[in-house]
Amino acid sequence: IDGSHLPFDENIEMTKKVVDTCHPRGVSVEGELGRLMGVEDEISVSEDEAIYTDPEQAEEFVERTGCDSLAIAIGTSHGAYKFKAQPKLAISILDDIASRVSIPLVLHGASAVPPDVLELATRYGAKLPGAKGVPPESIREAIGGGIAKVNIDTDLRLAFTGRVREFLTESPEVFDPRKILGAAIDGMKDVVKSKIELFGSGGKA
What we know:
The protein is of the alpha/beta class. The chain has seven helices and six strands, in the order H-E-E-E-H-E-H-E-H-H-E-H-H.
């Protein structure tokens, strides 16, 4: 449940209500505190409105809501345009939060916008000038600092788009959506495989 757009106490109230509804049914709840720049679910957050998660508030939020995991804001953003300047995450804030809470921490907006995936999409007509993601080394550092779940939807979308554009260009006679989407699925599989290795999740299933 994402109440990060609400005032602190209202976010707690909403999240606690969801927790109280879900826990008796065996459903875990991820709360969110702090605001990420970008657009998600048609809600736009500007650079001026983006707010890092406050470590003291994170501790209070977890205690009062009883949520099972917490998505925090340490400098990532939704979409393919995450940084205007040098990419940098606030690892010191992550460290402080991790020292205060014992539940898994979540990083939204953590796509890397891989150069090879971006290049393929661009080569076949996508227009994504200036797209820039979170460097892999920053993701590794964040995982080492306590991040347990990493959201990478944009990288999957880019892989899907690039492979569909490539397939339609190279095979204009094909109109079977199963074949077109098969190419897209293969592209997303390649991204997932690389993320499993990056996140240190290989061989742990």
